[in-house]
## 1
Amino acid sequence: MGSEEAVLFETDNAEGRVLYRLFAVSIFVGICLVWAYRVNNVPGSEEVAGRWIWFGMLGAELWFGFYWFITQALQWNRVYRRTFKDRLSLGYENSLPNIDIFVCTADPTVEPPLMVINTVLSVMAYEYPTEKLSVYLSDDAGSDLTFYALIEASDFAKLWIPYCKNYKVEPRSPKVYFRSASAPTSPSHAQDFSSIKKMYEDMERRIESAVNLGRIPEEISAKHRGFSQWDSYFAKQDHGSIVQILIDGRDIDAKDVEGCPMPTLVYLAREKRPNYFHNFKAGVMNALIRVSSKISNGPIILNVDCDMFSNNSYALRDAVCFFMDEKKGHEIAFVQFPQNFENVTKNDMYSASLRLITEVEFHGLDGYGGPLYIGTGCFHRRETLCGKKFTEYKDEPKRVNKLLRDESKHDLEERLKTLASVTYEENTQWGNEMGLKYGSPVEDVITGLAIQCRGWKSIYFNPTRKAFLGIVPTTLVDTLVQHKRWSEGDFQIFLSKYCPLWFGHGKISLGLQLGYCCYCFWPVNSLPVIYYSMIPSLCLLKGISLFPQISSPWFLSFAYVIFASCAQSFVEFIFSGGTVLGWWNDQRIWLYKRISSYLFAFIDTILKLLGLFKLEFIISSKVSDEDVSKRYEKEIMEFGATSPMFTVLSTLALLNLFCFVGLVKKLVLDTSSLVVFETLVLQILMCGVLVLINLPLYQGLFLRSDKGKMPGPVAAKSVTFAFLICILFTLLY
Ligand SMILES: O=c1ccn([C@@H]2O[C@H](COP(=O)(O)OP(=O)(O)O[C@H]3O[C@H](CO)[C@@H](O)[C@H](O)[C@H]3O)[C@@H](O)[C@H]2O)c(=O)[nH]1
Ligand SMILES: [Mn+2]
């Protein structure tokens, strides 16, 4: 084969890089001028309070400037990848690697079995030789309902896979397909369509009725020997390992309705005992790595969360293009696809699509050695997950691991159970040098970092047809809690021995180290943002000016930095497919995350360092009741929970409202005070923007009567706090 054909992927630099860099330099100059102004205009020593406020502003601005600087690592060197799947099929169709797909679920109430099996069916139906695919469902709840749904799915797959392949169906999650597919045009397809749709709906009904019943009806459990495993089951957190090979790809009888081989399908519930810590998803992944190594041992592992169905049946081939590329493939440890979502509304009220991260920042990281591993939609080389260093791998002769299995399925299942037992990992390197790392709520990020520090590269691939679609939380509190977990995890990495700066020093590029820091520092951002959104507004009450007056040339530097960075985020947002209102919502959530999720993450991390708190993992809900869904569809913000995070948000919003009203009152009563305008313009503007951005919150506090409004106690508390802070400030200053 010519060298041209051997190239399976290409990398392009972002357009307009030079222009962007010039623009960034201009902002940097602006930031330096802001600092210079702050340092040169410290109030005299007679104004003690004024000085401290000023130093606070200086501190915040130093941080903002510094943080802006490191975020350039996410912008400076953006790259985009392209794959050549046709070359892959031409040159390598017979040597495509086996792929093991891990799907994780943990709770049948927040992750309904029906959703889980739709994801499973979508990944069983990839455009890839089926005999090379093995799908493993890990069920951390060990729920017989999920198991039952999987049995149903294993039968339905025999029809579904050939149907998808015959009619080139997309997406291959049956639920989403039947919901969105346009009516088939050819009569034969129409017939197949309606018959398979009926089969699906029947299956759906059976599963739903078991779920509604809350247990498996006897006539069903008698039919499948697998249910006997639940005889010794006590509770979610107290049961032995359950391993069931539902479809064994090697079994000559495992054929679909057209006689083609089926992918292997395995159910796993690892052992859980109350006095053993189970390490959340990292523990699951490690059990899966071990169990799969004895069944299919695919050299490539794809892992997805149970809500992340496959939306692009060629994505496996895309990923394989990277690993099999003759020149650069051998140094790639993992290929990360973005997390995209199915249920985001038009203006994305909770900024849940993570638009700038997926469309801009990860391309930036990719330019410096590769993106973070973000837990789902990621393809790993099995060996790198198991701790292999790049240098060891490079020098080693490549051999194909052929698994020889002659024991019976039953014996194998029994042997596999010990691999998923609570004691298996005692005195081993699992969770440390092997597998995913333990001890972090973001097992993915820390594991990815460790892999990159062993000399490997990673790839970010963001195809136009999205590869995976998941579910975003549909309430404000869920969104904030999820961000708390992420930011807390990243911050803990920074404070641990895996700090990207020290641990990564000399192992990954400086750009990548700084890139990691951008995420690790999320919680730290909370402090300056809270300061900046409180103090200047409070100062309005006393007419204290904190910014240069409009006629001063220093004013320009502030105005430029603020305006230019807003404009940049606006342009990036719109170019990444967002709407104008979506951008405005994104700004609101930007603020809310900083003053609540990140603040609580910061505090909890400190408490955890002091040993006052232990690790937890709150699973994001993938279902919401009808009432909540309706409001979500209409883009009405959902409060409706008494969370301390809401008290902080409301207090800050009200505080700004009081300050703004106080100012207006002063201007109306005393027109001579209009001169203050000259000196307070920026402060008034900031306070005004804060009031505007909080409009939905004021509505939630005072104007709404539905169930999603802000609960009364939160409203009462925050009015009191905001009022007290304003009074205290005016009295004490
Ligand atoms: O003890 C646990 C906890 C979670 N999960 C599974 O882990 C996945 C992620 O949980 P989810 O609540 O959906 O968290 P997200 O915040 O949406 O997840 C993102 O962030 C996590 C780290 O915080 C990563 O593990 C995920 O892969 C990544 O998608 C789900 O499939 C769960 O079923 C388990 O299997 N066992
Ligand atoms: Mn999730």
## 2
Amino acid sequence: MVILSKPAIEQFSYVRNKQPAALFPPLIPIVDLSEPDSKHQMIKACEEFGFFKVINHGVPMEFISRLESEATEFFSLPLSEKEKTGQPKPYGYGNRRIGPNGDVGWVEYLLLTTNQDPNLATENPDGFRVALNNYMAAVKKLACEILEMVADGLKIQPRNVLSKLMMDEQSDSVFRLNHYPPCPDVVQSSNGNVIGFGEHTDPQIISVLRSNNTSGLQISLRDGSWISVPPDHHSFFINVGDSLQVMTNGRFKSVKHRVLANSVKSRLSMIYFCGPPMSEKIAPLPCLMRGDQQSLYKEFTWRNGRIFDPDCTCWKPILSHGKRLQQECRAAIVAGSQAGNEAALLWNQNRWKRLLEDWCKLNTDGAVRGSQAWHPVGIYEGLLTAWSVGVRNLVIEVDSLKALRIVQQDLAGQRSLAIVFYIVELLNRS
Ligand SMILES: C=C1C[C@]23C[C@@]1(O)CC[C@H]2[C@@]12CC[C@H](O)[C@@](C)(C(=O)O1)[C@H]2[C@@H]3C(=O)O
Ligand SMILES: O=C(O)CCC(=O)C(=O)O
Ligand SMILES: [Fe+2]
């Protein structure tokens, strides 16, 4: 983890709990694999929560502890050593920046593909490699068993209809080690909690998660409230991913989850994400469509649906659509003004200017949160996205004069918040 020159809360997103915690939050479903009824418990949990805990899983504790200690050793190496593993593109060592969308979190991680020998580039990688291989093989077996039980529970055949996707040699499964160092600013912060890993759903079929005994993981319930998942280092947690949601035509919902940073203890999690082969077509399974039920999802090829692959997002049509809308707006305002339309006249007086050819506009209204705090994450993220999609001529519109002044002061050389430093760095890129 990089040493920060300013408190973490200035650089990282934080969340306020929008809803007061329920007095008796529902308990996370526990599925005991040694019980005969476990497949039905799994189906119920996947329908209600998209999430459950597995006990009596059969993964040897020795593989788990061995990987935990190797990973702890890896993350305690100097940054320069860890970076030798390569930047996450998408595989490698990453620090604070998660994925291609400019998300940031109080986390460092190692993202690996499961079908290639990992490039660990550390001084003595052999022990780490063996620990990873043993752990991954055992967890893959567990995931396969779970998916076969799910197929049984759904009464679909053959029972490997789901598991065969992740067992395929070409399966695009990934493995991730996340390390969340203690974040001292969590206690001091009146703003809420510092985000370790921002809210998201996992795009794969299922994810098999194990962590040390540090809390932080939260899942979102159907009513939008968040509940904390009590850590249990002896068990595994299963997330329903987006692909399984699609394949079950929405009967299962992928679970929205996030991780909050802890003030004193570090959290280490290891997750096996079971993905299908790249060329696999993902669509609702016909055998799960009852009667005249309609398909709720369009078929997509996993390669193109991988939300973390920036090449799979068609930015050009999005940008040209924006430009087209801009021209249509302008034409409507001009026509409205000529017809004496009051609103259009006001818009015109507001000197709404049409952008020059090849320019884009970033609107960051709402980037400021709360009356006291100025938290320019919107500007930072917008700039980062604009940069990563190749936009070089950008007009930035902010709805706060204070925000504008702070950035202008920093541009003139006066240091303020650390995140503004990053904003200025992006503005100065050529
Ligand atoms: C914040 C993000 C990281 C992620 C891509 C995303 O924009 C949203 C999904 C994230 C996730 C979660 C599961 C896996 O860790 C991952 C590799 C994936 O397939 O989707 C990550 C993405 C990532 O780190 O690139
Ligand atoms: O670290 C955790 O506990 C969860 C992280 C996560 O959701 C992810 O890596 O996709
Ligand atoms: Fe996740």
